[in-house]
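Usage example:
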Amino acid sequence: MSGLQTFEALFLMLLATSGVSSNTTSKTGTAPATNVVVEEPEFTDVIENVTVPAGRNVKLACSVKNLGSYKVAWMHFEQSAILTVHNHVITRNPRISVTHDKHDKHKTWFLHISNVQEEDKGRYMCQINTVTAKTQFGYLHVVVPPNIDDSLSSSDVIVREGSNVTLKCRATGSPTPTVKWKRDDNSKIAINRSLNVLEWEGNSIEITKISRLDMGAYLCIASNGVPPTVSKRIKVSVDFPPMLWIPHQLVGVPLYFNVTLECFTEAHPTSLNYWTREDGHMIHDSKKYRTESNVGMPIYKTHMRLHIYNIQQTDYGTYKCVAKNPRGETDGTIRLYTSTPPTTSPGPPTTESYSDLWSNRNLNDSAGGLPHHHGGQHSNSYSGHVVDKNSKYSSNLNEIDRSEQKSFDTNIIYWPPDTNRNNQGATTTTTRSTLSIILNTSMLLLARFSLQ
Ligand SMILES: *[C@@H]1O[C@H](CO)[C@@H](O)[C@H](O)[C@H]1NC(C)=O
Ligand SMILES: *[C@@H]1O[C@H](CO)[C@@H](O)[C@H](O)[C@H]1NC(C)=O
Ligand SMILES: *[C@@H]1O[C@H](CO)[C@@H](O)[C@H](O)[C@H]1NC(C)=O
Ligand SMILES: *[C@@H]1O[C@H](CO)[C@@H](O)[C@H](O)[C@H]1NC(C)=O
Ligand SMILES: *[C@@H]1O[C@H](CO)[C@@H](O)[C@H](O)[C@H]1NC(C)=O
Ligand SMILES: *[C@@H]1O[C@H](CO)[C@@H](O)[C@H](O)[C@H]1NC(C)=O
Ligand SMILES: *[C@@H]1O[C@H](CO)[C@@H](O)[C@H](O)[C@H]1NC(C)=O
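Running the assembly step on the lines above writes:
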């Protein structure tokens, strides 16, 4: 109220000082003694409320009839500021101007605001300086598209598996934007063990006990209905020491065959992966060996392969796959033993006993890493390792003969013989590794095949 009174006082003062003469005897409130009925000025239209994004230009219109010698002024209510009077700009704000449309019967006074700012919002009054001032209002709403303040928001993070991570996003705008979080591959966000969500609302998000599965890019998306919606991509890297999984720890291969050994690793950052013999010397690619490391999905998984060509007696023994990264190191052992060449008979399959090996002691700490590999469906068949069909069997015949002789009186032979076996009688004292080959008549088939 006092604001309004101030306006009126200011307004009248301005009219007096701006040299505008008025024939109205408004100060006394008595009309001039005349028979002519002078029509009072009147507004002919309401002021439209306007919503405008910051930065635009806007004009507010105030339409009046019978203005006569009265004047129209524009004011900003909340700022208690007189902006314009008649054709004059009173405010020092250079973005304000006033025009009016002379040709229209109902004169329209336009208040122009260029490059609208948030502080321009509020109630605009159009006032006529009649005895009792006539006033009408219009609202200017200034909206500001959302903006993410980088300096107050999280940037890419690298954390250790198992730690808690808080990501923040500070968004400004008018109206106040809402912030939503998503993963950029649209997978669920694991807030904690019991809460998985596709979307999370809030300026920050805390992921407790982060796992490697939580690794990836997160998007914070700020929106307030004013386009454009903005987003920030925050990459979360989860570091952990390497882990190994070996599908076949025992691999049998006949002399002169080729064979492939395999290890699966998980590590972040990416581990240095290599193979060694028992002497610890790194195996390099050569005529004898070819190493392969294929990055899987997700990228912290790697499939390591060691191809060994034309197996010689000295090639039997142990091999190690090694994975190292700045968080730690691990290795796993694969034993290569002599086996008999495959048969073409579909007869009883050879079986191989192996156990899944977890060489990493932190297995229980991994929230859903390598255990995916478990399932016992891995082909542990002999043919999975020995695929070559053109080996030189002839030179291997002696070995086969020996094994035949040993096994003639039994349906189960152990090859190579193993004294460590506890529940099945071993026949010799030579100790190698644990492999059982169940055979009956196929031994003969095998012998026949190898003669071809
Ligand atoms: C104002 O008064 C003057 C003299 O007093 C007169 O000449 C003029 O016509 C009047 N103007 C109006 C708009 O009444
Ligand atoms: C402008 O908005 C105000 C309140 O926000 C409302 O009372 C008024 O009727 C609106 N005017 C128009 C022309 O829509
Ligand atoms: C992580 O958050 C959980 C739950 O809020 C808390 O119990 C735990 O102590 C936190 N761990 C660390 C390393 O701060
Ligand atoms: C998981 O997070 C939600 C949201 O922060 C919380 O309400 C809930 O208690 C948490 N659950 C556990 C088991 O920590
Ligand atoms: C893993 O957890 C199981 C059950 O909680 C426990 O029996 C086992 O000893 C743990 N293994 C390791 C390597 O900590
Ligand atoms: C072993 O692999 C090499 C190269 O791929 C091939 O030339 C050779 O024939 C293979 N040997 C056997 C016995 O299959
Ligand atoms: C040997 O294998 C044949 C065919 O695979 C089978 O019918 C037979 O029962 C087996 N003999 C023994 C003793 O297991």
